[in-house]
Amino acid sequence: MDTTVTTGEEENVWGGGNRPLGASYGKMMMWFFIVSDALTFSGFLSAYGFSRFKFMETWPIADEVFTHVPFFHGNYPMIYVAFMTFILIMSSVTMVLAVDAGHKMKQNAVIWYMFLTIIGGAIFVGSQAWEWATFIKGDYGAIETKGGRILQFENIETGKRVALGEFAKSISTERVQSTRGTGLWYEKEGTLPTYSMQEITEGLKADPSVVIRTESIMQDGEMEGEKTVLTRAESLEKIKDGRIVVEGANLIHNEYGSRLFADFFFFITGFHGFHVFSGVLINVIIFFNVVLGTYEKRGHYEMVEKVGLYWHFVDLVWVFVFTFFYLV
Amino acid sequence: MAHDHKLEIFRGTLKFKNNIQKIWGVLIFLTLVTAVEVVLGIYKPQVLTHTNVLGMKALNWIFIILTLVKAYYISWDFMHLRDEKSSLRRAVVWTPIFLVSYLIFILLFEADYIHNVYKDGFIKWNF
């Protein structure tokens, strides 16, 4: 830097040390990283919107998919995700408080607020893991047709969903899971579903209270926005299209509806969860730096502010994921 | 480093005494907005789900607008954009807004077209 220059007006523009945006190099780079990361997430969410608009009339209804709360039985749509959202906003608040305490050079306050932020992040990641486990395990089970569409089952009187186990007929078969040891070419196969297609078909024929509900969403009338439920006669006809039994979800099949739904769920919430996880890791590193007094020696807590920006960004992304995955 | 904070939100109608109070104030506001979203999401009033505004359910418009409101307060108050120079703010905010609006426009328009092809064209996919 030019040592003769003392006032802002006379500063040498190309001499270095100039801050036209009023932010330090590190902070500005964090902002630019956030912008590019925001574009990545927007790409994913727009792709989700694309698939959803493409299958507008058959997309799964989120309220019927995410209905569980840990330690409680029953149907509570939205409650747990709302809790997760609140946890993340809360940990954002403790992060801002840490940044604020850093500006005032209060080391102990920064330590405590960083600690609380890390705890909040850990609770969120844990919740997301639980959410994934529940999603993968599945609820009621369904049938996939030869066209790849999902048929679910419902009680004709109560209008409540019926699990496969409640009506499937028990038929003993010779079919066992093929493992590497039993096959001639050392080919193995995935876990067989609990019930066979035949057991479901016979069970449906035998139980007059069970009907099929299809992926199609009613487009008008009193039940607009609800899934179409077939009559008993239509159900017996439709079950002939069934090919495989689906329980839970993976990247290829899922019992909730369109295959893309599960793919996007895993991809978007997974990518976000990975961000939260790495955010927690970075927070832990900064936490130990604060404890060791690194920033006290450095004379400022700007590093806390920078990881704070990343942490708030993760919160910001969740606000959008929450809306587009669970609400809209 | 910017030690001075702008302590007004809602265009100056609500002014806080210090930064910590402002943080809690914004938290209360964000929590309220989330609560409204959740309540609407659980009850789904028929008035809102059965009215169409610009090709989308009124309820979905409300969700999206409330989301943008939340995003504004997170970035402005938690990420301190309110205290940054306007040049930094504009560089960071308008770039993604422009690019993302463009992307959304293109993708949703195209998806709607494909939807119509699936619906009216001679393609059998729902079987």
Give the overall form of chain A. Answer: elongated
CATH superfamily of the largest domain in chain A: Cytochrome c oxidase, subunit III, four-helix bundle
DSSP E strands of chain B, number: 4
User: Order of helices and strands of chain A, N to C?
Assistant: HHHHEEHHEEHEHHH
Strand % of chain B is 5-15%
Low-confidence stretches of chain B: none
* Beginning-to-end CA distance, first to last residue of chain B: 62 Å
Shape estimate of chain B? flat
| Percent of sequence in beta strands of chain A | 5-15%
What's the helical proportion of residues of chain B?
55-70%
Kindly report the average pLDDT value of chain B: 89
**Rg of chain A:** 27 Å
Give a structural overview.
Chain B: It is found in: Cell membrane. Chain B: One of its GO terms (cellular component) is plasma membrane. Chain B: InterPro entries: Cyt_c_oxidase_su4_prok. The complex is a heterodimer of chains A (about 325) and B (about 130). Chain A is an alpha+beta fold and about 325 residues long. Chain A folds into two domains: about 180 residues, Four Helix Bundle (Hemerythrin (Met), subunit A); about 110 residues, no CATH class. Chain A has ten helices and five strands. Chain A has a five-stranded antiparallel sheet with strand order 4-3-2-1-5, with helices on one face. In chain A, helix 1 packs antiparallel against helix 8. The N and C termini of chain A lie far apart (about 55 Å). Chain B has about 130 residues and is mainly α. Chain B has four helices and four strands; from the N terminus they run ββααββαα. In chain B, a hairpin with a 2-residue loop joins strand 3 and strand 4. Chain B starts with 7 loop residues before the first strand and ends in a 7-residue tail after the last helix. The mean pLDDT of chain B is about 90. The interface between A and B is large, with 68 and 57 residues.
